[in-house]
């Protein structure tokens, strides 16, 4: 395939929720996209829809807990577009439980996907970003990276570690023009939130969560995607190592 002249963004976890909204936001900014996800059918459906609207897009199926996945992802982006400019580490898994409820298997799985995969893919993309003279990485953390959480110890610790990974890598690569920031969503209306609830029960749960948020509602995937897109843009060219809450004020009190 002839390399594209367009900038290329890799986005993980694009088969649902926030990742799909980020894909649409970055497509609107004119980037070529490599979408990464586990579910071929949903991934290809989104890719086909974006392609029909004029975006250069390739779907790459991968389970990011596979240690061979990062090299394959970068290779796929280079093969399709000849370059990588942006990486969005969005894929993640939620777990509930206090320390005594959390088995080693759950702890290890959550750390491996939420932290390990972000680390491995960020490390793997650096040479490609450097080759373009810089680039942007945005990690989708959580507002539980910023404050303590009740009953979600593995998840909250994994997201706090992503925040620290963001700050450390930002310092290490600022001089290369590689900016690394994190978005910290609060409760956001995706399949992850109120998982298993549908219809009226789901609407009631979301309303209950929203009532505890200063702005009076849970976030939408688009709320998160807009800030993510901003962090990849030239408007954020002097930002690196920032952790941005997008939570309707939930962590402001
Ligand atoms: P979601 O469940 O719809 O999306 C998560 C995506 O990650 C899915 O597409 C899933 O397939 C993918 N994924 C999980 N494990 C993977 C693996 N091993 N390999 C490849 N892909 C994998 O939920 P979402 O709310 O859209 O979550 C997106 C990000 O936002 C996550 O990192 C999540 O922790 C974070 N977040 C969500 C909320 C919320 O309330 N929804 C709040 C704070 C942070």
From TrEMBL:
Entry-linked InterPro entries: NAD(P)-bd_dom_sf (IPR036291), Sc_DH/Rdtase_CS (IPR020904), SDR_fam (IPR002347)
Superkingdom: Bacteria
UniProt keywords, alphabetically: Oxidoreductase
Keyword Metal-binding: no
Matching CDD domains: SDR_c (cd05233)
SUPFAM superfamilies per the UniProt record, alphabetical: NAD(P)-binding Rossmann-fold domains
Keyword Hydrolase attributed: no
Protein name, entry field: SDR family NAD(P)-dependent oxidoreductase
């Amino acid at each position: 395939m002839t390399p594209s002249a367009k900038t290329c963004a890799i986005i993980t976890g694009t088969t649902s929720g926030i990742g799909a909204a980020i894909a649409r936001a970055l497509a609107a900014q004119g980037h070529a996209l490599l979408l990464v996800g586990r579910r071929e059918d949903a991934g290809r459906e989104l890719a086909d829809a974006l392609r029909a609207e004029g975006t250069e897009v390739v779907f790459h199926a991968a389970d990011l807990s596979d240690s061979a996945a990062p090299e394959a992802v970068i290779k796929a982006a280079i093969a399709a577009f000849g370059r990588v400019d942006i990486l969005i580490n969005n894929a993640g898994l939620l777990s509930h439980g206090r320390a005594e409820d959390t088995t080693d298997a759950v702890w290890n799985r959550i750390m491996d996907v939420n932290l390990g995969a972000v680390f491995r893919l960020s490390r793997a993309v650096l040479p490609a970003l450097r080759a373009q003279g810089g680039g942007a990485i945005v990690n989708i953390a959580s507002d539980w990276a910023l404050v303590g959480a009740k009953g979600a110890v593995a998840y909250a610790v994994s997201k706090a570690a992503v925040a620290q990974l963001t700050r450390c890598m930002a310092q290490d690569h600022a001089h290369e023009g590689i900016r690394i920031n994190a978005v910290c969503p609060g409760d956001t209306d995706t399949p992850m939130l109120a998982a298993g609830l549908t219809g009226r029960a789901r609407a009631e749960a979301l309303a209950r969560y929203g009532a505890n948020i200063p702005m009076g509602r849970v976030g939408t995937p688009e709320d998160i995607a807009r800030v993510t897109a901003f962090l990849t843009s030239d408007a954020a060219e002097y930002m690196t190592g920032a952790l941005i809450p997008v939570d309707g004020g939930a962590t402001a009190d």
